[in-house]
Amino acid sequence: xxxxxxxxxxxxSLGIMFAFVKLAxxxxxxxxxxxxxxxxxxxxxxxxxxxxxxxxWPSIVxxxxxxxxxxxxxxxxxxxxxxxxxxLLPLADATTISFTVPIFATLFAALILREQVGIRRWSAILIxxxxxxxxxxxxxxxxxxFGAAVALTGALVTAGVTLVIRMLGRxxxxxxxxxxxxxxxxxxxxxxxxxxxxxxxxxTWGFLLGIGVFGAIGQxxxxxxxxxxxxxxxxxxxxxxxxxxxxxxxLIFGQYPGLSIWIGAPIIIGSGLFIAWxxxxxxxxxxxxxxxxxx
Length: 295
What we know:
The protein is mainly α. It has one domain (about 1-295). Helix content is about 80%, strand content about 0%. It has 12 helices and no strands. The chain has helices at about 1-25, 30-50, 65-90, 90-100, 100-110, 120-135, 145-170, 175-195, 200-230, 230-235, 240-255, 260-295. It is globular, with a radius of gyration of 19 Å. Residues about 285-295 have low confidence and may be disordered.
């Protein structure tokens, strides 16, 4: 139960962060400045977690720096695109499109990593893309085409990040990956924030602080949830993000989801959940097979 509640708390925190991202964008904050404060505020928390971990600071030593640099490059591009999508689209629309990440990740795993994907997961991928077409409505006028393109590109790059993280996960703890992500991205973001940043009023500084604080809390809760429960139990909780995106979109921005969201979102979510379930079943079968081979 602790894992589920922690994951739900993570989605709430990230939902608040994205609301602050949208508010900051409406007040003239440059995208790179939002990214800078998101990463800067998270760094002390990451250092605290490493310091309190069982191995402490020696745990950050890594021989996978090429992968860490690739993860950092893809990660900051993905974060930037996702932040941008939140400023271009209603929160519920951008969040719904972000749910295509597991669909793209499964597709990439099959095409790039040559993982075996059965007919059931291929069917889920196709059904998921039907949901995307319903939400995006190519040629329609409900969702701005450019905003939808940014959101979909963000989901594509995020799916690429998941593949790199999967490779890093064979040798690296999650907190180590997060640490090097911050280390490699902060210097460049500092330069961009210096160039594009500017003076803000107290309210706008509050938005930037909110981006950093709630982003850090969300990151902490995601990391902690993995300690309390298996991935297959907590990942479905990620879809609760749509509840907060819809609620904040209505209460703060007066943006109500259109009919296409109500129809397309359940299809995309159902596809993602089915893919997660099939991967869980597949992982279980592989574990049993390895156990039999070791007898």
